[in-house]
Amino acid sequence: MAERIFIGVAWPYANGPLHLGHIAGAYLPADIFARYHRMKGNEVVMVSGSDTHGAPITLQADKEGVSPRELFERYHKLFLQVWQQFGISFDLYTHTDTENHHRISQTIFLRLKEKGYLLVQKQLQMYSEASQRFLPDRYVIGTCPHCGYERARGDQCEKCGALLEPTQLLNPKSLLDGTTPVLRETEHFFLNLPAFEERLKAYVAEHENIWRPNVYRFTRNYLEQGLQPRPITRDLDWGIPVPVEGFEGKVLYVWFEAVIGYLSATVEWAQLKRGEGRGTGDEWKAFWYDQATRSYYFIGKDNIPFHTLIWPAELIGAERLDDSDGDVKFVLPYDVPANEFLNLEGDKFSTSRNWAVWAHDVVARYNPDTFRYHLTAIAPETADTEFTWSDFVRRNNDELVGWWGNLVHRVLTFTARNFDGQVPQPSTLTERDQEVLQKAEEMLATVDSLLSTCRFRRALAEAMEFVRALNRYWDEQQPWQTIKSDRERTGTVCYVALRAIDTLKVALAPFLPFTCERLHHMLGYDGKVVGEFEVREVAERERTHKVLLYRPESASLRWQPSQLPPGQKLRDITPLFAKLDEKVAEEERAKLGKPTGY
């Protein structure tokens, strides 16, 4: 029976280009998961968008002397390009400055207020006397009270991950003017998290055996410290206005409204389906109200509490988007497969410190599947891992070219040359032949099980271990020798190897869609594996915005063992991967230079 799978992916700040740390942290694993479930025939919607509000945007806009909108639209456009280049198959990728997102964010805010889950409190907030303005959290840096890191942000320490308030920082400084800010009183709305504490404890306990150990431990530790009300409005002139009289000049805090984007993006996706004549506009409701739906949120570890505690609290408190929807309640996150951090050549990826491998740059120069493979093979699923150019070159040459690409090319070219360019008709299969085909199906079942539980690194390793086993089978059978004396037996070996390669193509397609599509065609099949993307201009009442849409129906490959029939014509056989010169590692490492200081 088909499942309904919702996939929400972290919303990247549109204040700078994407780097490989972003891709590895959330977007690639989410795409692998979505492609796998679509191949299984499940009903999937994967959404995200550019985070366009908050201090990260205004800080960079101030630095460049441009408006926040001009800044985010530039990077949003670049993001749309990168997703297509890497094959990240969002059913909808939008952004948070749409009228739709404003409306739904304000609706959730008002529902929480009406149900008594919001408090109005006065608080002391950092104020720059030199600039005559309140300072949003990211406009303040100082020493982290937990780990002593000297350039911790006012919302979170980049080094130890602790969530902070600017007032907790030691030796605070304004990023606007370098002065020491003073404390001034201001009034804000707070989400009353303590009101949800018992329900959240029960919810978290139910997911102990579902969430990754690091996610569960982080969440439990956060709960055990005791939940406190968290401010959800800010003194800013850029963002979603607080829809309450007397709070003019204040906006919804970006962390509060950005997670609402998962809901608003799904609503927008359904509205676009209606506009195309392919739906009613209510398709979002099944994903958000049907408790059989499984919701997955792919994020980095610094966002864990927002998705395992704060977003569930918002959903529990609001209950539904509109009471006219009936007596339904929002679906809570089923799994939050948060990754740890991917480091770069001995240091942490950092946009602000200019220590990064920029996604749009490298994917224009290298096969995107090479990065998809390498970033999955070193995925920081349970601990921080490291990207190095030397390891990237090694894996490309040894594993993608040496194990997989070489196997495909040897088997297909040999078969095409000796059997009229088509899949041979096999004779009686030996016990060894049957074992190989059986192992291929077992491999596919194992990869299936691992992907279903978000263990992408192990799933890829299982597929590649079978690649090595199939290489051994081909070498031990020596078809280049048997073709001289036993054409029938040689044809059977080729048939078995092609069938096993065809099953491997299925297992590897979520990881390597571009090269698996080429292999799909080489094996004589029609249809697409990658699927098709469309960038569209969406008009609302006052503005338009660009979105990226993925057409899942255009990808025809299904999750099943090989159906390759004898007699099918092979075609256009070319190498899947190209070997990289070892000098590439030195050249790319030299381009990095040195990171700027924290």
Counting helices, strands and paired strands, the structural category is: alpha+beta
Report the uncertain regions.
none
What is the end-to-end distance? 52 Å
Largest sheet strand order? 13-1-2-3-18-17
* Oligomer category: single chain
Give helix % range. Answer: 40-55%
The total count of helices amounts to 19
Strand content: 5-15%
Strand count, sense and closure of the main sheet?
Answer: 6 strands, mixed
**What is the number of E strands?**
18
CA radius of gyration: 26 Å
Average pLDDT works out at 95
Principal-axis shape equals elongated
Report on this model:
With 598 residues, this protein is α+β, with helices and mostly antiparallel strands. The protein contains 19 helices and 18 strands. The chain has helices spanning 20-39, 55-64, 68-86, 99-114, 197-206, 213-224, 254-258, 261-275, 284-289, 304-318, 359-362, 368-377, 389-418, 431-452, 456-477, 479-482, 487-508, 513-522, 583-592, and strands at residues 4-9, 43-50, 92-95, 118-128, 133-134, 140-143, 152-153, 170-174, 182-191, 230-231, 233-234, 251-252, 294-298, 342-344, 347-348, 385-387, 532-539, 544-551. The strands form five sheets. It has a six-stranded mixed beta sheet, sandwiched between helices. A four-stranded antiparallel beta sheet has the order 5-4-9-10. A three-stranded antiparallel beta sheet has the order 7-6-8, with no helix packed on it. A hairpin with a 2-residue loop joins strand 14 and strand 15 (347-348). The longest helix has 30 residues, at 389-418.
